[in-house]
Design a protein that fits this description.
Length: 89
Amino acid sequence: WCMVCLLLHIAEGIVRSRFFPALRCLGAPLDLWLHAHRMARDVLTSWLILAALTPVVLLNMLNDCLCPGLSLHHLLIYRNPNHLARQEA
């Protein structure tokens, strides 16, 4: 994994350098590999977010089907704001 990170760092430096346009044929595969790696990282990140949020969405759909007038979200968010207030003696 460290080797891939090192190669990505070097490739980004080469692509950003001013002599990169002079590479022409040799630079195209490097640029393509760099963009492909970025796209793969973005796809994996999106998949991770989707996998993390799917159970919550399914639970919300189940809640809407079983208890149409009762929202678990509203119960958690809109609580009684004075429930921790001191009681006057």
